[in-house]
Design a protein that fits this description.
12% of the residues lie in helices and 27% in strands. It is α+β, with helices and mostly antiparallel strands. The chain has a five-stranded antiparallel β-sheet with strand order 31-35-33-34-32, with helices on one face. A hairpin with a 2-residue loop joins strand 40 and strand 41.
Amino acid sequence: FFSGSHTMFCFSRKTPEQKQKAVVLQKLNKIGGVHAVQQLLEEYKTLTGTNAAASTAPPTAAQALVAQLTATAPPADCGAPSQSNVDFTGCSHSASGTCTPKCVPGFVGNPTATCASNGKWLYGGACDAMSTVAPTAAPDCGEPKQDNVDFSKCTDHTSTGTCNPECASGFKGSPTADCKANGQWEYKGSCAKIDCGAPGQAHVDYTGCGTGPGKCQGKCEAGYTGTPAATCGAAGWAYTGACQPNLCAPSQVPHSDFSAEGSLHGTTGKSFTVTCNQGYHGSGVAVCQADGTFSTPKCEATECEPSQVPNSDKEAAGSIKGKAGEKVYVTCKPQFAGRGWTVCQPNGKFSPVMCSEVPHYSPVGCYKDSTDRTMELYSKNMVFQSVDECAAVAYGAGYRNFALQAPGQCFVSNSQEYLRDGESPKCGDNKDDRGQNMGGAWASAVYTFGMPGYQDASADAHLGYYADDNKYPTIQEASDACTALGARCAGVVQEADVFTVRAGTTPAPSATGQTSWLKGCGDGYCETRANAVLPGFAGGDHTAYPTKAAAEEACDKAGTLCGGVTREKRVYTCRQAELPKREGEITFLKK
């Protein structure tokens, strides 16, 4: 076995040769072991001037033994090296290893350490404190040079100096330069030519600006104001200033949701969605333009569906034409009433004007009037231009008598109270287009729905039995028949239980016992208060329907033109003489 620097060999059952080797080893151990013998042999060779490697003489027994023993011996282990101010980190402790020591911080030198085959460290050099080392001049690398790099700030060109180069004007990058101990510059990084590309800023024109370094003045687009500029640098374009939108003059679009004055307002590019009112077309977008004005859509009136009014100067099909808001005046033909303006409405339809046929009426005479009126004024707000017009409203309201006074006033009555103050000579020459008397100041031109040769009986009276078996639709036909019957006919009776379709929806009092039903309430038609009439005839329809159901059907077909149904006394019969009897009928006695 081996122990420390001494080698001990143990043998059992040794041969003579082995015993001789053991004796030699004991002697060798006494002088320091195999390695010591080797060293002595080397020293001996040096002193005698012999070279064992080159010698051809046979080796001595000692040499042979040493060679045999060292051929199998492991390399020496020198243990941990130690030297003042030297750092041996990473050193191998074996003679076959390597060791590269260095000075500890604060010391300088070139220390060496070698693990010898005898297990001893061989040291060379030393580490001395820096303060005791004479300074040496740092190497000078000379003037640094690199393409597109500015070294003007690098004034110390030695290895102990610092150098912070910058890119030359028009170039960008991150260059570095380091002066090494060998007196050579080490360059890293480089500088490339700056190219910012084309400048771009909202609403700015940079035409003519390059892509390289420098400042460029921009120009605002039309409709914008400002002093924009762009500077190309290493970080790209840097912008100053901006172009702000200009205000547009306020505007509006008639017949739209922006019809209010100045409701369109804003700056360049601002837009509004404009919607035309019903009855107008042309909706679109209004935009604030570069010239400071709004581009606006135009809402134009939509053409109404052409229309006509029977029994008027506009009775030809499609003779009434116009756009939304426009109106056309309609004049009724003689013996028809209801003139007025028809207006093109937003729904594309003309407002209704009806020329209603005026039932037969007869002049009674000119009678005085006073502040204590003999007849009821039909309307304070209406001015009548013909007798037919007054007759139409009086008949529609269920009155038997009517009168006109200047200027265009219409009076109604179911009695002969107009006779109270006597006749008047003041009706004069105030005539309508048909030459009929329109009355005068406090002078009533009185008319009745009776017939010449017949007079009204008291209200709600009737005559006797039928003079014939016919029922006549008009009083004219009935009176003609009664006259033809001679003494067999005492007069004409307007009977109940016929129905007409009406335009109005507000019931008015009836002096003739009429009854009315409003459309669109309850289960279809609702009865109004007793003795009520709905004004006007639906679409000029004067038809006397024999049943309420037939009248309701006609009213439904008339649509919005019909407001309801009124039960009338409009069938006329010829009657025999008999004392009047109150049954809600209107009686005309033959004179």
